[in-house]
């Protein structure tokens, strides 16, 4: 085997390790998602970090995925006033969490309703 063959063998091995790592991470993500789905039956998303041992942002990003997959009809959501902002709540879930893992508040009811329409079009 010459130097070039060794170089390409190394690249292939590194590529395979990368593929294996991504597959492992996807498997771990899917297991965590299943755990979070179960926990959401009895718990608020704010409790997930404590219950799973996984950081809050990661948990809430997974909650967003769940919302997008399972509650993707705009009729699953409604807008309520909470103090001086408008918040989106699910009919059978808690408040809306966006793709960044953040709760969303809006200045007006119309802005919140427009967000629902845009998100689920």
Structure description:
This protein is mostly helical. Helix content is 57%, strand content 12%. The chain contains four helices and three strands. The protein has a three-stranded antiparallel β-sheet, with helices on one face. Strand 1 and strand 2 (85-90) form a beta hairpin. The longest helix has 38 residues, at 3-40. The N and C termini lie far apart (57 Å). The mean pLDDT is 91.
Q: How is the secondary structure organized here?
A:
Layout: H1 3-40, H2 48-52, H3 56-70, E1 77-82, E2 85-90, E3 105-106, H4 109-119
Antiparallel strand pairs: 1-2, 2-3
Describe, in short, the structure shown.
With 121 residues, this protein is mainly alpha-helical.
H-E string: HHHEEEH
* E-strand count: 3
CA(first)-CA(last) distance: 57 Å
Structural class: mainly alpha
Radius of gyration (Å): 20 Å
**Major β-sheet strand ordering:** 1-2-3
- Average pLDDT, all residues: 91
Strand content: 5-15%
By DSSP (H or I, 4+ residues per run), the number of helices equals: 4
Largest pleated sheet = 3 strands, antiparallel
pLDDT < 50 runs, ≥5 residues? none
Apparent shape: elongated
- Helix content percent band: 55-70%
């Amino acid at each position: 085997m010459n130097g070039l063959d060794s170089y390409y063998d190394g690249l292939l091995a590194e590529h395979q390790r990368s593929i294996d790592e991504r597959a492992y991470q996807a498997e771990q993500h899917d297991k965590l998602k299943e755990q979070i789905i179960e926990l959401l039956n009895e718990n608020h998303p704010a409790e997930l970090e404590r219950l799973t041992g996984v950081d809050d942002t990661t948990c809430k990003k997974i909650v967003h995925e769940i919302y997008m997959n399972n509650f993707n009809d705009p009729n699953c959501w409604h807008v309520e006033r909470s103090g001086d902002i408008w918040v989106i709540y699910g009919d059978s879930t808690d408040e809306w969490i966006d793709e960044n893992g953040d709760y969303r508040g809006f200045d007006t009811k119309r802005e919140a309703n427009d967000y629902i329409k845009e998100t689920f079009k």
